[in-house]
Design brief:
heterodimer; A: mainly alpha; MetI-like fold; globular; disordered C terminus; B: alpha+beta; Rossmann fold; OB fold (Dihydrolipoamide Acetyltransferase, E2P); 2 domains; 6-stranded mixed β-sheet; 5-stranded antiparallel β-sheet; 9 helices; 34% strand
Chain lengths: 285, 382
């Protein structure tokens, strides 16, 4: 009986397992294999060693971190107060949420194109700033570091916000009342009760935002300066793969990307565990 | 704790849009008193409680502690400065903090540290019999234990007023009784001024010095448990206190005596008599006289346990049993009388379903009130 139900369960899991193997395990294993071999298939570490030896490639890690870390911090730091103020719902909440979700649904390329027009030297934003005499000549919002950061903010903030909103609005409102009745003002209630309970949400929002920002490609190409200041690590991988047709080197760069992302995520999870020791024990609450 | 003699709530009103949740609520609490707000859900008892804490701003009225005004509907002392403690139905413990940290929460905000902090937390936990639970997290504890932590978290601060919002409603029947005893013992010991909100008349009767029965945000009756139980002010209070037999009736005659009102009336296809021990100037006399004069219907209120099958001296009513529930020492019987009225009573002799019966009620055990629809959301006459 038990064996039969186990077999039934395995049967139900099969599509998911096949899916994961085909779309994740196989490509990852293949990439790992490529990164550790030469074009003739023999084992080598040169793909990795070359990356670290080449200043032009190696510095992409630093460039990418310089973009992705501040962007992620800004997105999450903005999302926390937004989520806090909207935790009980607001008038016009649907409209606000709608406008926040638009950048997600439009996709990176369309948003980038829009930004190029709107924020470009002849765009409306610069026209306005010139008209108001805030700037004397068009301010460069695009084709630089700032352009990439703005674009990643537009894309990443809604994710962080929606995720945290779900977390905060799920916190029992009586906890805030209880904290207040025990003598805490709004600020103390936020830091002593709400923030610690938001930590798991913040950790997840931070991780997802960081991964999104670290693997940035379209914004860096369209809105940045892909030849230099915003030559991010994914551009390096792309150039090895599709300009130099060296998939082995490109795979090695991808593996390095993955390793850095995993490292940052583990740091975040360590922080989460320190901040919220109840998390592993408290299921509900 | 700042000492005080009494807390007075004066004409407190709370409106949400065009809905009045609390209407002209006036009440005084003496220090050390245990007062219960009793009423069905939606009667405004929790809103009244939250208004007193300041968590819900009041629309009009005033709240005073002796000669200190803490709320006059325009300016208010914020809830965190009132030195009140509150216990919630769902415990509202901080899930990320241990039991000791939960109890220490308010003390730390008051800058109490070190040995004194540890001692006061220990004392509070001992008071609610939770020694040895200090390092547990709330989710590792049962509902009853969690609620005790919540109580400890409040009383450790020695609040001027302790407010409990249906604290036992989430617990199972056995735990509820246990914790009720503990609450009573705790109040006896600490004499904290307490407001207790519940819809459970047993809890109200068991714990309170005074009961405030509410309906649609209006006070229906304020009195000791004995008064509210034996001498309800109107049919709503009577219904809530367990007078489950409500039969439509028509007054045939009223005889005024100095200490009682003898009313003969027709109900359940019989002519019955009620002896109401109302004092001479009791407004309920006038209300019944008015109903008699206008010929408008009245309604009886009789407890199931005051109906018997053997006391031939009382008012006799013929009926037949529909449902008989075995409940150990007696049976709960639901019967139908003439005109389709429903009669609830308890019977020790065995009764079978469908059996024709004669039941009896002593004239002193019947109450009569002007008719009312009993909807808890609509205000009747207080």
């Amino acid at each position: 009986m038990k064996g039969a139900s186990r077999r039934g369960l395995g049967f139900l899991l099969a599509p998911a397992i096949v899916f994961v193997i085909l779309l994740f395990v196989y490509p990852f294993a293949y990439g790992l294999f490529l990164s550790l071999t030469k074009e003739d298939g023999s084992f080598t570490l040169s793909n990795y060693l070359n990356f670290f030896a080449s200043a032009r490639d190696f510095r992409t890690i630093w460039v990418t971190l310089q973009i992705s870390v501040p962007v992620t911090f800004i997105n999450v730091a903005l999302a926390v107060p937004f989520a806090y103020y909207m935790r009980r719902g607001l008038k016009g909440e649907k409209i606000i949420t709608f406008f926040l979700i638009i950048p997600i649904t439009l996709g990176t390329v369309l948003v980038s194109e829009g930004m190029l027009t709107f924020m470009g030297p002849k765009g409306w934003l610069n026209q306005l700033l010139l008209f108001l005499h805030i700037v004397k000549e068009p301010f460069r919002f695009t084709h630089n570091y700032l352009g990439v950061v703005i674009s990643l903010g537009l894309q990443g903030f809604p994710y962080a916000f929606l995720m945290l909103l779900g977390y905060v609005s799920g916190i029992n409102p009586d906890l805030e009342k209880a904290s207040q009745m025990l003598g805490a003002n709004k600020l103390q209630t936020f830091w002593k009760v709400l923030f610690p309970l938001m930590v798991p949400g913040i950790a997840i929002a931070f991780s997802l935002n960081f991964v999104m920002a670290f693997s940035v490609f379209p914004s860096a190409v369209l809105l940045g300066e892909p030849s230099g200041p915003t030559r991010v690590i994914s551009i390096a991988a792309y150039q090895w793969a599709f300009e130099k047709f060296n998939f082995n080197a490109a795979s090695a760069i991808s593996m390095i990307m993955a390793a850095i992302e995993l490292l940052v995520i583990s740091l975040i999870l360590v922080w989460r565990a320190r901040m919220y020791k109840g998390a592993s024990i408290v299921g509900k609450g | 704790m700042k000492d005080f003699k009494k807390i007075s709530v004066r004409r407190m009103t709370k409106r949400f849009g065009d809905k009045t949740a609390v209407h002209d609520f006036s009440l005084e609490f003496g220090k050390g008193e245990f007062v219960t707000f009793l009423g069905p859900s939606g009667c405004g008892k929790s809103t009244a409680l939250n208004c007193i804490t300041g968590l819900i701003p009041i629309t009009s009225g005033e709240i005073w502690i002796d000669d200190e005004c803490i709320d006059d509907s325009k300016s208010q002392v914020p809830p965190e400065k009132r030195e009140f403690g509150m216990v919630f139905q769902n415990y509202a413990l901080f899930p990320h903090l241990t039991v000791a940290e939960n109890v220490a929460f308010g003390l730390k905000l008051r800058k109490i540290r070190g040995a004194e902090l540890a001692k006061r937390v220990d004392d509070a936990l001992r008071l609610v019999h939770l020694e040895g639970y200090a390092s547990k997290f709330p989710a590792q504890m049962s509902g009853g234990e969690q609620q005790r932590v919540a109580i400890a978290r409040c009383i450790v601060l020695e609040p001027r007023l302790l407010l409990l919002d249906e604290p036992l409603s989430n617990l199972d029947a056995k735990l509820r009784i246990e914790l009720r005893y503990e609450l009573k013992a705790l109040h006896e010991r600490l004499k904290v001024t307490t407001i207790y909100v519940t819809h459970d008349q047993t809890e109200a009767l068991a714990l309170s010095d005074r009961i405030v029965v509410l309906r649609a945000g209006k006070i229906q009756q304020v009195g000791s448990p004995e008064q509210v139980y034996a001498d309800p002010a109107n049919i709503f209070v009577a219904d809530f206190m367990g007078y489950r037999n409500r039969w439509p009736a028509k007054i045939q005659s009223i005889e005024e005596r100095s200490d009682t009102l003898v009313v003969r009336f027709g109900s359940a296809g019989a002519s019955l008599e009620a002896h109401l021990s109302y004092p001479a100037a009791d407004p309920r006399r006038a209300a019944l006289q008015a109903a008699f004069a206008s010929g408008s219907p009245v309604i009886t209120a009789v407890r199931p346990e005051d109906i018997g099958m053997d006391d031939k001296a009382g008012n006799g009513i013929r009926c037949h049993a529909d449902i008989v529930e075995y409940q150990g020492n007696a049976s709960q019987v639901s019967a139908t009388g003439a005109d389709g009225i429903r009669i609830d009573f308890r019977s020790s002799p065995k009764v079978s379903e469908g059996e024709a019966l004669s039941i009896f009620v002593a004239p002193g055990k019947i109450l009569l009130f002007p008719a009312d629809n009993l909807d808890p959301k609509q205000g009747g006459s207080p």
